[in-house]
Amino acid sequence: MKALDELTFDNRFARLGDAFSTHVLPEPLDEPRLVVASKAAMALLDLDPAVAETSVFAELFGGHKLWAEAEPRAMVYSGHQFGGYTPQLGDGRGLLLGEVYNQAGEHWDLHLKGAGMTPYSRMGDGRAVLRSSIREFLASEALHALGIPSSRALCVIGSSTPVWREKQERGAMVLRLAQSHIRFGHFEYFYYTKKPEQQAELAEHVLNLHYPECREQPEPYLAMFREIVERNAEMIAKWQAYGFCHGVMNTDNMSILGITFDFGPFAFLDDFDAHFICNHSDHEGRYSFSNQVPIGQWNLSALAQALTPFISVDALKEALGLYLPFYQAHYLDLMRRRLGLTTAEDDDQKLVEGLLKLMQNSGVDYTLFFRRLGDESAELAVKRLRDDFVDLAGFDAWAERYKARIARDGDYAQQQRRERMHAVNPLYILRNYLAQNAIAAAEAGDYSEVRRLHEVLSKPFEEQAGMEQYAQRPPDWGKHLEISCSS
Ligand code: AMP
Ligand code: MG
């Protein structure tokens, strides 16, 4: 276990130089205070969890202090936003403080979000508010606990600094951890600004640091792109299987590691709704829940375009062709497990689709349905769940198919079925209304609710005594909360 001043830095991205990022110091927040910290994320840096309670911790992650070895940099990138190309974006309100490596030899980027203005702030103030910082923190750690690849969050630091959005709010910072903060948009930036040398340097950097095994392949860059395609397909399969809607799948928010990245107006589905749009500003539904699958491929094509200097168009096309089959395989595998199946049959996709259609028509709670399905034998569970459906004849027909399929799957004890299904079907997810309750309390100065919610969500598959209220469908006020991009 380490104290805060014992972290070891090795700032590999900063060493790429000024073409890639700009030195900027964090702008401190007034009266920084700890809102919440993740012990699991602290462990990634070998940090003693007790240090979160020290004043130095709030000062460091509230922008007042810096390690001597840190080299705070704002990264430059660009990206396709809602389908249109924006030539220059970049860290407008976040700084890469440096890269820390842990005892296991892993490097973790320390990225401070809400750290003030940078050369890339455009019209923004460089700040993040408490509300959005809490949402990013809870989501990062909750997705990780569900087994969905994501950037991580070490802590949220609150303050008394006024920040103007639709109304006056308070500034906050999130300390985000990821093994890289390089986005598709980094490659796009150097491609469209026609800087082939820097682009090659970036590609070498990513290959050497993050895909070293691809070096052994006959075409290392192509192998790396294939890997990026596969990781993204797997990540999006998990989003779809667990009902996560990202909301702003612009290419500047897509990580080259295939992790969920840059949280804005995200949401988990309450009722199953394939057409759900979580981003209030997404009028066309470009990033609706079901569109996430084709948009994942669209984004990879945008990356592919930026990689044309290194890889032939035919090879890129072939690699892009792997996306849907990878996606389908991962998605179906997870959905089979969510249904309690241990074997594969050709018609399983139809079984899943049939269920989703029924859930859509009846507004069935996506998370609780699967959890309850595992509570009992298939026979008993479908009987009990039947009441949630409007189209009873439709549900009965599906239930017959399901029971027959379970019978063919194998003969196992209910105890086994329950354990197996509960291990993949969470009881607790980050529902918007739960986040909203925690935010309202935190805005009033009470951080206990954020901390409790974070704890509950860190073990989403385990029933926790006294936490029944976190496993409920939303009350009426919490059903269709509008979350905007202004965070
Ligand atoms: P996002 O939609 O959060 O991914 O942000 C898109 C771009 O806008 C990125 O370059 C951000 O750094 C920048 N940005 C977002 N909010 C702010 C802000 N409050 N101040 C400065 N830049 C911002
Ligand atoms: Mg972003």
Tally of helical runs: 16
- Note the gap between the termini: 34 Å
Radius of gyration: 23 Å
Query: Secondary-structure element sequence?
Result: EEHHEEEEEEHEEHHHEEHHHHHHHHHH
Helix % is 40-55%
Bound compounds, please? adenosine monophosphate, magnesium ion
User: Mean of the pLDDT scores?
Assistant: 97
In terms of DSSP E residues, the strand content is 5-15%
Are there runs of 5+ residues with pLDDT below 50, and where?
A: none
* Structure classification: alpha+beta
Biggest sheet details: 6 strands, antiparallel
Number of strands: 12
Shape: globular
Count of the domains: 3
EC number: 2.7.7.-, 2.7.7.108
Function: Nucleotidyltransferase involved in the post-translational modification of proteins. It can catalyze the addition of adenosine monophosphate (AMP) or uridine monophosphate (UMP) to a protein, resulting in modifications known as AMPylation and UMPylation.
Protein name: Protein nucleotidyltransferase YdiU
Enzyme class: transferase
